[in-house]
Amino acid sequence: NLQLTENGVAHIYVDLATQKRFGMTLEQACACAPSVCSVRPYERTSSPKVARRGCWTWGHIMQNPGGYFDHMVNCKMNTCVIWNNHVPTNARYIVEQAHRNGIKLLWGFAWGWSTSINAESMADHLNRKDEVVREYLENYAPLGGDGIYFQSFTETSSETLGGRLIAEVVTEYVNDIAGKILAVQPDLHIQFQNSVDDCVAVNFLGLQA
Predict the structure, then answer these.
(1) Burial code of 21-57, b = ≥16 C-beta within 10 A, e = fewer?
(2) What predicted TM-score, i.e. pTM, was given to this entire model?
(3) Which is it for strands 164-165 and 79-83: parallel, antiparallel or unpaired?
(4) Core-most of 36, 87, 138, 187, by most CB within 10 Å?
(5) What is the mean pLDDT of residues 190-206?
(6) CB 193: neighbour CB atoms within 10 A?
(7) Banded model confidence at residue 163, pLDDT cuts 50, 70, 90
(8) 121 closest CA partner among 96, 91, 153
């Protein structure tokens, strides 16, 4: 909206909805009426409302980790969760490239992940909790990342196991594992699947630079 006062001073109002719809900045709005409009020197600052902004991605699609993180920075993201079935051979390089861009990197790996669960397979999971702890301490802790992310046996067609909610069973299971890890590294950031508060789930599938 362009309004002229009696002394010829122009007032331009560009509401947020217009800026979002047309991508119009104050300078661009003034360019629409150059004969009556000028912008005095000013400062503009902004910051995202979400502190940790990032994406979850499979590690094998990151053919160019440096370029991938460059794209993340352009999108104002600062956190990346990388999921792998095995520790990448270039893991330390990936961490280095993430930190070069000011991005916190979380390594993702399975804690008894399964799409089907029953009493027999649950017993196997319970017997392998120490393996999960050892997997982190031996393979991921030395890499210099900023935390870990995990998934467990929640992606199933059944909601219960042995008369109990699977969510209740898995909570006990992962809390025990996390307790063992935190006993060794009490300041470690551990993330259990994605939440809106932690990460905006965006996957640059196949994106290369």
Answers:
(1) eeeeeeeebbeeeeeebeeeeeeeeeeeebebbbbbb
(2) 0.69
(3) unpaired
(4) 87
(5) 47
(6) 16
(7) confident
(8) 153
